[in-house]
Structure formats: structure tokens, C-alpha cells
Amino acid sequence: MYTQCSHCRAVFRVTMKELTAAQGLLRCGECDTIFDAMKALSTTLPDERLGSGNGRDLLGEARIHNLPLGSLAEGSSSTNPHKTGKHISSNKRTSKSRKFLYLSLFALCLLLLIQLFYSYRTKLLEYPSTRELTQTVCSWLACELDNVRHLDQIKLLSHTVYTHPNTPNVLIINTSIQNNATNPQPYPLLEVSFLNQRSEVVALRRFTPEEYLSKEQQGELMPAKTPKELSLNIEDPGKDAVRFQLRFL
């Protein structure tokens, strides 16, 4: 039996089995048009049905095609178990690929966040609002926190100022400080400034840990929750100085 595309007039040789499987709808192999093969179905070639020389000329320009398996219309795919199985398998592979892609992106984002956290952990520890969370996360990631400074956790417990008994024009400042952080940290830089009655700085001196620690203590960290007694010698700024300030840097 024969049928003809309603769009490009291409002729196809078909069987009833193929038409039944396709529910009468075929896809043209020439122009890709889906057409109703039952409307043009015939047991004779188109020129024989037309019964004229014109018909023979038309057939001479056309070609008779055997119906390929891929020419069944999309709507009839459910009648082809092999094709349906391939379609389901393809969908499963696509779904697995998407899941793998999403998991890969999530892992990369997580790795980036961890790297950023590790790089800025010192800065985060300087702020009370993020310090506790940072310390908790660092305990999970085994971050090194021993050398992180928490200047706001160093407290001045007491201080006294008096003239050096043996050296003229030299003052002695005895002070007690304590590290209230949960971890040891480096000793701070000490800044001593003397002010006049108008709160203007008349003298200023900064002491490094190497200057105010003993040789045995140098290189050590300031222990947590332990008062430390320090002694500083500084040149007497004169009578204009009425009070002094001590800052940790």
C-alpha cells in the first residue's frame, strides 16, 4: 500500500501494521511534516490513481520511500516499548547529571566559604559579636588561634607611678594586667602617655614586649586568666604632666 505526504507530495510504501502502530500519523522523511496517512492511503501508485499523463510526470519527480522506523509520529511513541525504554533511560541519566552538577557546585561553594573563613578568622576574632562563633568553628576545623590578638580582652587591673629611688628624672610605673580571653595570646605593645591639665599629651613612650619582659619570658604567650605584674622605667616628663594613660596596641 502507498500513501502521500500532504505537504511535499512525497510517496511512501507502508503496511497496515506500521499504520496501526503509528495510529495513522506519519512523519515525512522529506519535509518532516506529520500527516494523516489514512487520508491518502491507496493500493496503487499516485499516477495510476490519477490516470493521466500529468500524474505520471508527478510520480517521475517523486520517489517511493520505504517507511523508516523513525517516521512514526511522536504521539505513537508509547506503542514502541524499545523507544520508550531509551527515553526513560535518557531521562534518568539527565537527572543524575543534574544532581551531580548541583552537588559539585555546593561542594565548591562550601570550600570557598571555608577558605574565606580561614583567611579572615583573625579579623573575625577581633569583634565580640563574631568571636564566639569563630572560636567554635575553628575548633571544628582545627584552626590555629594561639597567635591571635584580642586587645579588648586585656584588662588593666592596677597601676602605680613613683620616682625612681636611685636614678634622677626617671619614673617607675608598676602595673598589673590580665588576659581575659579563653586562649593565650601575644603580649601587647604598651603605650604610656602623660597629659597636662588641658588633656594635651606632653610625653609619650611605647614599650615592646621585649622591653618590659624578662629574658626568660620573651617569646612566651600571655596566659589566659592570669594576672601579670609589669614594671616600666620612663623619663620624668616634668611638672606639666598631671596624669598618665596606658593603652594596649
Describe this structure in words.
The chain folds into three domains: 2-79, no CATH class; 80-145, no CATH class; 151-248, Immunoglobulins (Immunoglobulin-like, Sandwich), CATH 2.60.40.10. It is 33% helix and 25% strand. The chain has six helices and eleven strands. Strand 8 (190-195) and strand 9 (201-207) form a beta hairpin. Mean pLDDT is 79; it is low at 49-62 and 73-84. Residues 1-35 form the Zinc finger/thioredoxin putative domain. The chain crosses the membrane at residues 100-120. This is MJ0042 family finger-like domain-containing protein. Residues 70-91 are annotated as: Disordered.
Q: What is CATH's topology name of the largest domain?
A: Immunoglobulin-like
Order of helices and strands: EEHEEHHEHHEEEEHEE
Strand residues, percent: 25-35%
Total domains, how many? Answer: 3
Shape: rod-shaped
Question: Main beta sheet, described?
Answer: 3 strands, mixed
Spans with pLDDT under 50 lasting ≥5 residues? 49-62, 73-84
CATH superfamily of the largest domain: Immunoglobulins
CATH level 1 class label of the largest domain: Mainly Beta
What gap, in angstroms, lies between the N and C termini?
Answer: 99 Å
Overall pLDDT: 79
Helix content: 25-40%
Computed structural class? alpha+beta
Question: Count of helices?
Answer: 6
- Provide the gyration radius in Å: 46 Å
Strand ordering within the main sheet? 1-2-5
- What is the architecture of the largest domain at the second tier of CATH? Sandwich
Count the E strands.
Answer: 11
